[in-house]
Write a structure and sequence with these properties.
By secondary structure, the protein is an alpha/beta fold. It has helices at residues 29-34, 45-53, 61-70, 101-106, 117-126, 128-131, 150-160; strands at residues 4-7, 20-24, 73-77, 79-84, 93-97, 111-115, 135-138. Strands 3-2-6-7 form a four-stranded parallel sheet, sandwiched between helices. Helix 2 (45-53) packs across helix 7 (150-160). The radius of gyration is 15 Å and the shape is globular.
């Protein structure tokens, strides 16, 4: 599979009440096709977030946005542009990071989380030097992370992400 030069095509989800920011690395092929985050049907992100927020699992993009906003959660990805093969995080190169300063300046973000080690490493390398805000790396919800069951993911996310009242 060849490398593709890709630009992130959809905006972050957040509003002025967002207190938690969850960052992924870069959208998968399926997410790029869908035009929204965590589009692969076997990615456990929406299962995990609905469980920790006490919401029904969202199906449509609007339902996903509504669940996030009502839970004061913002989501985006570390990467604005890169070269990548398919959906492989390990193939990512020539990274141009997203500018998260607009979210940080306009929302009371209390904590930043990475969905997976790659997002955490990329944040540390490209964004942390500007923000000086530490990131907590959580296990990836990707189906490629088979070592973590849905139940274990829910448990670790629930322990770390405290949903604002």
């Amino acid at each position: 599979m060849e490398y593709e030069n890709l630009q992130h095509e959809f905006p972050p989800v957040w509003d002025e009440s967002s207190e938690i920011l969850i960052l992924g690395s870069f959208p998968s092929v399926k997410s790029r096709e869908d035009g929204f985050f965590y589009g692969h049907p076997r990615n456990r992100f929406w299962d995990v977030l609905s469980a920790i927020t006490g919401s029904l699992r969202p199906v449509t993009i609007e339902e996903k946005k509504d669940m996030l906003i009502s839970a004061h959660i913002a989501i985006w990805d570390v990467i604005a542009r890169c070269q990548i093969r398919g959906s492989s995080d390990s193939s990512i190169r020539n990274v141009v990071p997203n500018d998260i300063s607009g979210i940080l300046a306009n929302a009371p973000i209390q904590k930043i989380f990475a969905n997976g080690r790659t997002a955490g490493k990329l944040y540390e390398k490209y964004i942390y030097p500007d923000t000086q805000i530490p990131i907590t790396v959580l296990p990836s919800t990707s189906p490629a992370n088979a070592a973590w069951t849905r139940e274990r993911l829910i448990e670790i996310y629930r322990e770390n992400i405290i949903i604002p009242a």
